Amino acid sequence: MKTIGNIIVFVFLCFSCCIKAQKKEIEILSKDKAEINKAINLYKTDNTKEILTTFLRTALNNITSKEKSFSLNTTLYAIDSLFHLSKDEPSDFIKQTSFDFKLKANEQNSVSSIYFGFTTAIVNNKDLKTKKLDSKDFAALEKNVFIQADIKKSLYALLLKKEEISNQKIDSVKAQINTILQSLHKSSKYEDTCFAQTKISKRLRALFSKVNLSHEESQSKQVEFDDVLEGLEDKEISKVQTDIDGELEALKDYINTKELESLNKKWDDAKEKSDFMALTNDINQINFDGDVFREVTKDGDYKRIIKSYREGKDPLKMLHKEVAETYSRRMLWTVSPAMEYDRENKQGIYNMATKMTVGISNKLQRKPWEIEANATFKVSKDTLNQATNYDNQVGLINFGVNKVLLENKDNEPKMEFKFFTQLEHQFGKTYNSPKSIFSLNSTLRINLFKAVWLPITVKYDPDNENLFGFFSIAANLSD
Known about the structure:
Strand content: 25-35%
Number of strands: 13
Shape: elongated
Strand order of the largest sheet: 1-2-3-4-5-6-7-8-9-10-11-13
Order of helices and strands: HHEEHHEEHHHHHHHEEEEEEEEE
Helix content: 40-55%
Oligomer: single chain
């Protein structure tokens, strides 16, 4: 029985450790993981967001062609967030599935067909909404979080030392003033109350210059003490001593509160702006070889992280960006079933598409490359046959590369160029339709401002020597 009891206790302790570890991971990831995911959306190319929107995408497509369209793609997660449909945490399917809607127009600019479907991810290694961080990234994040927390504790410890020194200076002046007041009627040296008041004021001015008070604050405090000392010859010494002591204790509270608020503001500003330059003087006073930091953090990365803080940088934010940029290069593979109603021919059109994109290298680099491969199968009416039919059965295969040409200072894509080949094959029995068409295509995407992009596509058919060009305009909104 004793052995069984020991086993039960052991299992309970292991279970408790697992729960604590999970809680620790949740606490760390709840905020930092959200920050990383937000950065991932910034680093994603517009080409990727066209495949699977992160929140909401609207576009006017092929504006200069005969067949133009308006499209709206929004994730189910966005719909759920706006209308609060889920009481619990949304499922993975909701988080990585978008609803696709499109209105197509003919040459007369009237609606020729209505398209609706959805896109869902088979593999989505770019998004952290549905997965945990890799163990390596989690360990690095955990280490940075711990070091940053310890630096903050150390800054508060330094503040307490400064408060102690400031309080000692005030207590020293308090003792000197009390000595002067007590000696007023015991020594002819201080029989002149005006001389005593001048002596006390001099001590106070010296004190104000030693503690952290501005010129305006020093003048304001001097006025407060002058009010207490005014008419000293007519006041009871004990009452003056009590008032002076109260003013000096209030000065302690004022300075200590001011220093604490200043530190909190500097820390909050540093985290918000990812700039610790305003805290470097204080950080450089920390004894990093002391007992403040956990031994587990003192490895090869420890000095690099500390060096960054000493230089005024934010290594935790830098890690967020590094991890985000790595994830934004990973694979995305989607499938998109859709149905379209052809208003002119009064029958349905059925589509099935799959798209895959992945960065050529997961290593951090400026202006990355992406490989893209797509396949589409579409069944519709052969318009040369007046009867209802589904003889137009077209398969498309695309393969190409997308290159970021221009980035801003934060490495967010601002211009992209995609070159891809396309093979179109007719599987059905249609009248006067070529069996296969091969074309060379390119799309230049220019970020006009913020979330608005201008894709310009050029298509060349080498067999028939046809060249087509058209442009679109699209807007992406992130969560």
